[in-house]
Amino acid sequence: MKCTQCGNETFIEGLRFPIHFDGRMDSGFEMFVCDKCGYVEFFFEKAMDYNREINKAIKSHDSMIDGPKQKLAKLRGRALELKTELKRIYESEVVKLEAIVANEDISVKQHKDAQSKLNTIKNLTSREKREMSGLDFSELPSKRELDRLEHQVKDLEKMKEQDILAIKRKYDL
Question: Residue 160's pLDDT is what?
Answer without folding.
Answer: 95
